[in-house]
Design a protein that fits this description.
The protein is of the alpha+beta class and 205 residues long. The protein has one domain (5-203): Nucleoside Triphosphate Pyrophosphohydrolase, CATH 3.90.79.10. 20% of the residues lie in helices and 38% in strands. The protein contains 4 helices and 11 strands. The strands form 2 sheets. Strands 3, 4, 5, 6, 7, 8, 9, 10 and 11 form a 9-stranded mixed β-sheet that branches. A hairpin with a 4-residue loop joins β10 and β11. α3 (146-158) packs antiparallel against α4. The chain is globular, with a radius of gyration of 16 Å. The termini are far apart.
Length: 205
C-alpha cells in the first residue's frame, strides 16, 4: 500500500510527477483522492475505518474513499465503492459535489494535502443488506439520519464536542443502536457544505 505510486501536483494543480505514497505523505505533496457519499431516505452511510489503519483508525469516514493512483482518471476512483462496500455503481449515476482542497496534519504527524473529488449517490438498501463490505479495511458501517449528519458536520465546523446524535451500526452480523460524537468523525472540512446536498439527493423522487 505504501509503495503504490501517486500523481503529485503543486499548489496550483499542475502535475509535477509521480512518487510513492509514503513519500507523498512524508513530503506533503498535493495528490488526488476520491470520496463517495451513499445516501438514502433514512440517512447517510458512513464507514468505520479499521482499528489498525495508519491514519484515523476507528474513525467514521465517507461511505467509500481512497487515493487515485498514478495514471488513474477520476472515474476510476469508483473502484473504492466496489472494494470497500461491495457495491457496483455506474459513474454516470453519481452527482459531483466538486473538488475540495484539504491541507492537514494527520494524527500520525504526516502531512496530508489532497484534492478530493467528491460525489454522492442514492442507494436505498437497508443497513443489514450491506453484506459485501471489506472486513479488513472497515470495522463496519454506521447509518446516521440527515439531521444527525448535519449536526455532526456543524459541530466539527464550530469546534464543539458536546453533541451526540443517534445512529445504527452494522458489523456484518448485528445492527445496534449507537451514539455518535463529532470526535469520532474524520474532520473533513467540507462536511457542513455538503450536508444539505446529501439531503436533497436522498429526497429526490
Amino acid at each position: 500500500m505504501q509503495d503504490e505510486l501517486l500523481d503529485v501536483f503543486d499548489d496550483r494543480g499542475w502535475h509535477r510527477g509521480v512518487k510513492p505514497r509514503a513519500a507523498v505523505h512524508r513530503d506533503g505533496d498535493w495528490h488526488l483522492a476520491f470520496h463517495l457519499w451513499v445516501v438514502s431516505a433514512d440517512g447517510v452511510l458512513l464507514q468505520r475505518r479499521a482499528a489498525d489503519k495508519a491514519s484515523w483508525p476507528g474513525f467514521l469516514d465517507a461511505s467509500a474513499a481512497g487515493h487515485l493512483i498514478a495514471g488513474e482518471a477520476i472515474r476510476d476512483g469508483l473502484r473504492e465503492a466496489d472494494e470497500e462496500l461491495g457495491a457496483a455503481y455506474a459513474f454516470d449515476d453519481l452527482e459531483s459535489l466538486g473538488v475540495h482542497r484539504v491541507d492537514e496534519v494527520e494524527q500520525s504527524g504526516l502531512v496530508n494535502r489532497e484534492l478530493q473529488h467528491v460525489f454522492v449517490i442514492r442507494d436505498d438498501r437497508p443497513l443489514s443488506r450491506w453484506t459485501g463490505f471489506d472486513r479488513v479495511e472497515l470495522d463496519g458501517l454506521v447509518l446516521v439520519t440527515h439531521d444527525g449528519f448535519a449536526a455532526l458536520a456543524n459541530a466539527l465546523r464550530e469546534g464543539e464536542d458536546d453533541v451526540h446524535v443517534p445512529g445504527r451500526a452494522w458489523d456484518g452480523t448485528d445492527v445496534t443502536d449507537v451514539e455518535i460524537a463529532p470526535g469520532e468523525v474524520v474532520p473533513t472540512p467540507y462536511l457542513a457544505e455538503i450536508a444539505p446536498v446529501l439531503r436533497r439527493v436522498a429526497d429526490a423522487q
